[in-house]
Design brief:
The complex is a heterodimer. Chain A is an alpha/beta fold. Chain A has one domain: Alkaline Phosphatase, subunit A. Chain A is 30% helix and 13% strand. Chain A is globular, with a radius of gyration of 22 Å. Chain B is α+β, with helices and mostly antiparallel strands. Chain B is built from 24 helices and 13 strands. In chain B, a hairpin with a 2-residue loop joins strand 8 and strand 9. In chain B, 51% of the residues are buried. Classes of the chains: A alpha/beta, B alpha+beta.
Chain lengths: 436, 594
């Protein structure tokens, strides 16, 4: 059998330079420090998710229904959750072959919901809005670094040489890890048969180790390059790729396989499902990356929203439930927190073209093992009033009642055991949502 | 070029700084004369002797260096290469002798010249001798190359920094022009009216009013939105094409500089006509007066939309523009102004807005009446003056421009753009005086100062900045003379590398510098350049220069030895040696530096 170019390249590498292991991943077989067994998966709902059609305010369904003559989810499409009569889930979050998705997670004690999340004076610009959410700043302030970058660089044991602090799948232009001294891997898929990890290995496979020399600028480039080479070696090791056993598409032979993962049974087909599977594989393979960001786009629906949004919610629930099941399958659910975010919610009243315009507050979900949640309170906050709106007809920020988005971040940082003082003030983790 | 100079006649030691000999011990009965020549860190690298020894240390590497030692009995001793580690300790091979480099006198240097003491011994017909000689070995190529080579290197640096890289033809046009005159002529010649193409469709995009828009059916509204997106993409492609093909690259470079200072994001504004107007404004004023530029940007419809000026009205001031004017456009955070000034400046600009057709308009009826106090000065025009709205806003800008801080602030940004590294406040203060002049803020004048300054021209500064994604891609095309198949592809590729042209990440623009390169962006750069190499190689209508190495050499500095070997090894690895070689050349890590 003739060797492919890729195999030739890989074999040439195998005889080449030996790569140093990063200290915090330690030598093969040794465990990383306990803190770093925990993982955060951020799920960006790109475009501004319509929270009102995702988690429906059932206490004031009449107002909701009246303000959305074509868009309101009808009674037949509402799904109740045990113990929380004030809200209903959109049926796309529950209905699906084989499981009840978010309702099953809720009944397992694995799903928590935060209502009315946002900030005062929220920007209604996609651009500015997501920038604020990624940086963790206040609405009127511009910070150049991401909230996770600040926490990671402040965390003990993390150095500029650390292989990879985070992995971003799919869309990479908005980034809560932005800033100096963190290594962020961009994992994209060039080939539907490849996994994200393999695509990364492929992108990096022919990088040659070079001595760190030249001007300061060039030395910086070469240091980053050296970090990539080490990360490549990590991914290679964890997935135990054997070039002689690959098929034509370079499928790794030791990629973790999850119970029930065939076709689209566990994960939805398409990009988002692939991202969920890839993250599950990397966490299951114990790749030493603490933070992952995945992305699902298409939420900016100013016209003809209903069908498009329903489909996105179905993908979201299918993918995240699949991710939960895969992690559970490998015993990693208790180590992992999954959390959604989005640049803003949408206006209460639908617009003239059966869509919604940019708004403010929105609900978000957190998923982990039940042991990480307090059973008593997994619904946090109260639904913002549909009648006491702000000047633009949006859900109004109410001091003391609305949930500042940075409290979700503080919750995640508490879960990861990382520094929380990375904002302009102290934001308390959501007590009762995750047991600290 | 052969750097070996085996002198057969004794030379006067230290007679010329063009030699690398500063001083040399004269040994008893054995007059040693050293002449040395080296390829240094600059450029070629590959043109030294064939059997270069492996570098001995990681920090400082000189290749192609030969020191010929001539004794009175003509027993020549050659030193093939010298390398020193960070402490300056090194050894070198000496045919017929041996020597060591003790330490550089200037251990804190970056890539500037260094003085090395050689303990050297030689044996010849008259016996052996030892001694010390001090040799200036450095990668400052002017000192060791012929004068024309030195000029190439100076011009190459100029074009790599003030422009987007350079090709052989463009460089050749300036080779016989003295450096300072070249700077003068390039800066003076830039003419915004000269473009390589007609304006994009966005220039004539028909703007619907909200009333007209609301009358459209949902399908028509969708189509209108789509046509906006297409027209805005057309602006991206237009600017990319201009950057790559322009004959006045300084102009586009400065337009990009102002874009990064006076940020407007197309994805936020999402109005093609206004975005084109904004880019046109930046280009038209790129090399004029900053006073004119700042006055114009305050009235620019895209800026009005981006910073919410339209909702800055009497009784309900929106401080967005006022804050950025002080913080990002003129004074900088923590300088001169306070929060109270932001409030007062916002009042002065109430009523500055746009019409439903996105034309700038001054609305006295939305203007906050009364006197305002800005930076301690009172701005007071009569409330019944129908021009009060205009006069208040313009008075703010005039007042702010009286602050000497403004010129310093802009010159700091120019330092970061063109020189990089730790700022020299003294030099910046000098530039700022030039810039401010008598209050006209002449951009051309200060640029001439900058490009002829010692900080800019210093050899040690070469190759010590990171190219932005736009600069990297544009440099490849400008050097090779090739063109992208589709310019818009490069918009998307650069955006994956975190520089979406006309869409900076936030109102502060791109941070740039070393931050351009992360694990993520470096891999994106490599992937995209590999695609470019593939396109060069496989879309046969364009001819890849046979001497791609030589052409790209105009763009790079100090390629690591191992990387050159890696490029040269392309032939060993793959079934497609030429394609692989092109790809490896285009992804040379040194190309990230300018």
């Amino acid at each position: 059998m003739p060797l492919t170019r890729r195999e030739l390249l890989r074999m040439s590498l195998a005889t080449g330079v030996a790569f140093a292991m990063p200290s915090w991943l330690s030598a093969a077989g040794a465990s990383p420090s306990p803190t770093w067994t925990r993982r955060l998966v951020l799920v960006e709902l790109d475009g501004g998710n319509d929270g009102l059609n995702t988690i429906i305010p059932y206490d004031d369904y009449a107002t909701y229904d009246a303000k959305r003559p074509t868009l309101a989810v009808p009674e037949s499409g509402l799904r109740a959750l045990a113990g929380v009569p004030s809200i209903r889930l959109n049926y796309n979050l529950v209905d699906g072959p084989g499981s009840e998705r978010f309702r099953r997670l809720w009944n397992n004690g694995e799903l928590a919901i935060a209502l009315g999340v946002g900030m005062p004076d929220q920007s209604r610009s996609h651009f500015r809005g997501i920038d604020v959410w990624n940086s963790g700043s206040s609405a009127g302030t511009v910070w150049n670094t991401g909230w996770l970058q600040r926490s990671l660089t402040a965390a003990a044991g993390i150095t500029a040489d650390t292989v990879a602090h985070g992995a971003i799948l799919s869309r990479t232009t908005s980034n809560p890890l932005a800033g100096p001294d963190v290594n962020v891997l961009a994992l994209s898929k060039s080939d539907p048969w490849d996994s994200y990890a393999e695509t990364f290995i492929g992108q990096a496979e022919d990088l040659a180790a070079a001595p760190i020399a030249g001007t300061e600028a060039l030395q910086h480039v070469l240091r980053v390059q050296s970090g990539i080479i080490t990360a490549r070696s990590q991914l290679d090791d964890r997935f135990a790729w054997d070039p002689l056993l690959n098929d034509d598409h370079g499928q790794a032979t030791a990629m973790p396989v999850f119970t029930g993962d065939s076709g689209n049974a566990l994960f939805p087909s398409g990009d988002f499902g692939n991202q969920c599977r890839a993250v599950a594989q990397m966490i299951a393979a114990d790749v030493g990356i603490p933070v992952y960001k995945i992305h699902i786009g298409g939420f900016d629906n100013h016209a003809g929203q209903r069908a498009k949004h329903d489909d996105l919610l179905a993908q979201l629930a299918h993918g995240l439930t699949g991710l939960r099941d895969a992690l559970q399958d490998k015993g990693r659910l208790a180590d992992t927190l999954i959390m959604t975010y989005s640049e803003f919610g949408r206006r209460v009243e639908e617009n003239g073209s059966a869509g919604t315009d940019h708004g403010t507050l929105a609900p978000h979900v957190l998923i982990s093992d039940a042991s990480n949640f307090s059973g008593a309170n997994r619904l946090h906050g109260t639904y913002p009033s549909l009648t006491a709106l702000d000047g633009r007809g949006d859900l109004a920020w109410v001091d003391g009642t609305s949930i500042d988005y940075r409290r979700l971040y503080a919750t995640a940082l508490r879960f990861l055991g990382m520094p929380e003082d990375v904002f302009d003030a102290t934001y308390a983790p959501l007590t009762g949502l995750l047991t600290a | 070029m052969d750097h070996t100079q085996s002198a057969t006649e004794p030379q006067q030691a230290g007679s010329s700084t063009a030699d690398t000999v500063l001083a040399c011990a004269t040994l008893a009965a054995v007059p040693l004369v050293l002449s040395a020549c080296g390829g240094g860190g600059g450029g070629g690298g590959g043109d030294g002797d064939g059997d270069e020894p492996a570098p001995l240390g990681p920090a400082i590497t000189f290749t192609g260096l030969t020191i010929a030692v001539t004794t009175s009995t003509a027993a020549a001793v050659h030193i093939d290469a010298v390398a020193a580690d960070a402490e300056g300790a090194a050894a070198f091979r000496l045919d017929g002798g041996s020597g060591t480099v003790s330490r550089p006198r200037d251990p804190g240097h970056r890539q500037a010249e260094s003085l090395y003491e050689f303990a050297i011994s030689a044996e010849g017909g008259m016996g052996s001798a030892t001694g010390t000689c001090v040799v200036r070995i450095n990668p400052a190529p002017e000192d060791i190359l012929s004068e024309s080579d030195a000029r190439v290197l100076s011009l190459r640096h100029l074009f790599n920094r003030m422009s987007f890289g350079v090709g052989e033809e463009e460089l050749g046009r300036w080779l016989n022009v003295p450096y300072a005159e070249a700077v003068q002529r390039i800066v003076d010649a830039a003419d915004p009216s000269q473009t390589t193409q007609r304006p994009p469709s966005a220039a004539t995009f028909h703007v619907l009013t909200w009333t007209e828009y609301d009358r459209l059916s949902p399908a028509e509204q969708q189509a209108y939105g789509d046509s906006k997106g297409d027209a805005i993409s057309g602006i991206y492609a237009w600017w990319w094409r201009e950057i790559i093909r322009t004959r006045q690259p300084l102009l586009e470079k400065m337009a990009l500089f102002w874009h990064n200072l006076l940020v407007v994001a197309a994805s936020d504004v999402f109005e093609p006509r206004a975005m084109w107007g904004y880019l046109d404004l930046l280009r038209s004023n790129a090399l004029g007066s900053y006073r004119d530029l700042i006055l114009a940007i305050a009235r620019d419809p895209a800026m009005v939309m981006f910073l919410d000026s339209n909702s800055n009205v009497k009784g309900r001031p929106n401080e967005n523009f006022a804050r950025e004017l002080l913080e990002l456009f003129t004074l900088g955070e923590g300088h001169v102004y306070g929060e109270a000034d932001v409030v007062e400046v916002a009042k002065c600009f109430t009523g500055w807005g746009i019409t439903d057709r996105q034309v700038f308009v001054l609305r006295q009826d939305r203007h906050e009446p009364g006197a305002k106090t800005v930076l301690g000065s009172t701005i007071s025009f009569a409330d019944d003056d129908p021009e009060q709205v205009r006069k208040d806003g313009e008075a703010v800008i005039e007042r702010v421009l009286q602050e000497s801080r403004v010129a310093v602030f802009i010159c700091e940004k120019l330092w970061d753009e063109f020189v990089g590294g730790a700022r020299d406040d003294g030099m910046i203060a000098g530039w700022a005086d030039t810039f401010r002049g008598s209050g006209d803020y002449d951009i051309r004048r200060v640029l001439k100062d900058i490009f002829t300054s010692s900080a800019f021209t210093a050899a040690g500064n070469r190759g010590n900045m990171i190219r932005s994604p736009v600069e990297y891609a544009a440099a490849i095309f400008r050097a090779t003379g090739l063109q992208p198949g589709r310019y818009i592809d490069y918009y998307w590729r650069a955006s994956q590398e975190d520089q979406a042209l006309l869409n900076p990440p936030n109102v502060r623009g791109w941070v740039g510098g070393l931050q351009w390169i992360s694990a993520k962006t470096l891999l994106e750069r490599r992937t995209h350049m590999a695609w470019t190499g593939w396109e060069f190689y496989n879309h046969g209508s364009q001819k890849v220069p046979e001497r791609l190495d030589g052409v790209l050499e105009l763009l790079w500095f100090a390629t690591p030895v191992a990387q050159r070997a890696y490029v040269d090894d392309a032939v060993l690895i793959t079934w497609d040696p030429r394609g692989e070689r092109i790809r490896r050349l285009l992804t040379d890590p040194a190309l990230n530096c300018k």
